[in-house]
Amino acid sequence: xxxxxxxxxxxxxxxxxxxxxxxxxxxxxxxxxxxxxxxxxxxxxxxxxxxxxxxxxxxxxxxxxxxxxxxxxxxxxxxxxxxxxxxxxxxxxxxxxxxxxxxxxxxxxxxxxxxxxxxxxxxxxxxxxxxxxxxxxxxxxxxxxxxxxxxxxxxxxxxxxxxxxxxxxxxxxxxxxxxxxxxxxxxxxxxxxxxxxxxxxxxxxxxxxxxxxxxxxxxxxxxxxxxxxxxxxxxxxxxxxxxxxxxxxxxxxxxxxxxxxxxxxxxxxxxxxxxxxxxxxxxxxxxxxxxxxxxxxxxxxxxxxxxxxxxxxxxxxxxxxxxxxxxxxxxxxxxxxxxxxxxxxxxxxxxxxxxxxxxxxxxxxxxxxxxxxxxxxxxxxxxxxxxxxxxxxxxxxxxxxxxxxxxxxxxxxxxxxxxxxxxxxxxxxxxxxxxxxxxxxxxxxxxxxxxxxxxxxxxxxxxxxxxxxxxxxxxxxxxxxxxxxxxxxxxxxxxxxxxxxxxxxxxxxxxxxxxxxxxxxxxxxxxxxxxxxxxxxxxxxxxxxxxxxxxxxxxxxxxxxxxxxxxxxxxxxxxxxxxxxxxxxxxxxxxxxxxxxxxxxxxxxxxxxxxxxxxxxxxxxxxxxxxxxxxxxxxxxxxxxxxxxxxxxxxxxxxxxxxxxxxxxxxxxxxxxxxxxxxxxxxxxxxxxxxxxxxxxxxxxxxxxxxxxxxxxxxxxxxxxxxxxxxxxxxxxxxxxxxxxxxxxxxxxxxxxxxxxxxxxxxxxxxxxxxxxxxxxxxxxxxxxxxxxxxxxxxxxxxxxxxx
Length: 804
Prior knowledge:
The chain is of the alpha/beta class. It has four domains: 6-231, 3-Layer(aba) Sandwich (Dimethylsulfoxide Reductase, domain 2), CATH 3.40.228; 251-316 and 475-521, no CATH class; 323-409 and 414-469, Rossmann fold, CATH 3.40.50; 677-803, Barwin-like endoglucanases. It contains 23 helices and 33 strands. Helix 4 (67-80) runs antiparallel to helix 7 (160-167) and helix 4 (67-80) runs parallel beside helix 10 (205-218).
């Protein structure tokens, strides 16, 4: 989230897509209803009519997998009707940048496509630079090669009639959504966009979000109160887990994971530190060497930086290590062992039968969980013969969240400290203690028996426990960072001497020379003289109280900034565009309100002022984003499994760079009469994730006891299915049963002149419990993914539904 939960209440218009927020993200919807009480409008776009739709002022249906046409039509509407916030677009985005002559788009492909590699050479997407190395710009936005004109030309094809034809959304509904949301493109208005997995779990998932970003930049909705792009997470600490480097391609603090081709720290820094010639760009990632050095010192304080760098695991160049790829490699016998820690991939992973089969290739597997899971007991599940499976499975019982102390970081980036409500039951232990003891054993074995490349194990800073019990405060202090050597530095207008062990007060004081350590630079300032995440102070200034910043309540990364890119909420002189809900303001030579996105004066000060989007190299919001693997602008491609054989916007039906695999379970059904219906998976209120906890809670199981399939009355009549009857769903990958829920919440779509039916199934079930509860929805889903992230396409695939 660029903003935070409370800030939703400041919005004039809340656009919810890819989420049933009222049921699945009730905290977000609480604040959406607060906004509505003050006169805001709620828009809900979804294939189903849900409780969120019931509260919406504007509801529009769209076929799963057609989000980019929906957004493309909105972009076209904004541009065609001059509804964009021009001063914001000119001053704060790259709309004025001139794109090089080699850039082109034709027949659904961007320039630089290599069909054999199924990848783009992105060099042709670069900008034109002058002799001084600065990007050429046209502030009038009239140059035909400027981003603004390229954007207009690109989306000119997305007229409402064409968008309606492919999405199944009636033109009148499109008109209402577009008109309502485009009205936020005025200085005094703000609109926010809320999304969840319904937007991301596609082969164009990243570009779905990119399209939202373009809309928000055109309307001036980034950095303002009641604006932003806000992800509704599926777990309490998803934000915190990605912050701390859970994903393969990043280290903590979103530092790129080193490639094996980068042999030295100097080479890594050279290739991963952006430079700019623009004097008004803060180019904040130019500080990456400080953050990398401090991270290395948090791991290996006794080693020099170069040695610490050699210890880090490296990615093989060009190799994908995302979730789907790991299990594909596992199926091929690439792994001997697997830790399934607090996860249930036998139920949660797309193409679940493939995942379960992959686990049979292991020598051993360790599951860390509270209850028996489909993963831990896969070997005795449906279709498995335990006598033929060699995998030895170990089970470690762990504590639940309210049995352990530590922090979570919610969607709004608020780091909140939590305390145990009770002690862990039986022999179960908090995850931290299990990890601590496990590594102690491993290091002991290395000391006793030796092993390949022991130095990274022997030299790791493992001071994470007190009296041999995991200590979350020690870890939190190291994540914040502290000085390793005495250092005298300028803090504000004065000099201050820091001694070894003193906490780093903010990431601006991290050093490249190894004199500071920080496990995660974005969390510097979270644990200084006290545990900032444990604060519960509701004090606010009058200005802060107008928008509910609550700066003393817990702590928010970075440096307690509540709204990212908040310098875009003021004009170049520092005056808020929306005085009644100002985020920051330049008063008497200083910023007031939220923590500003950098200390510099407003942009009108051309000598010292900086552009607001400090995390981009040129300091501006990226309407044209040349870094994505599937194009610098979002373009509609059908899901890998789809009900139509043509793309009305180009000759390219599917994303040409989508993550795909080969094998007997990798057959995709497009326009296949055996699988005529679009299917999407989703959540219900009563269950959580794959249901490991909730299916073992009797009162929740009583509320939602079995797998079900929602379908329209028209589809039910066509297939002779009555409400409550058992049905069979089939895809090219497998089949499962469900109870039919015949409901008008789901209705047929008219897509390119033909009737398209869609069904929906929850993904919370599995075969372990209850006995007659059904199995995982992911048995049906294809193992194909987005080319940027590898996230699977579980929101739009093709199935058959028949009466059991």
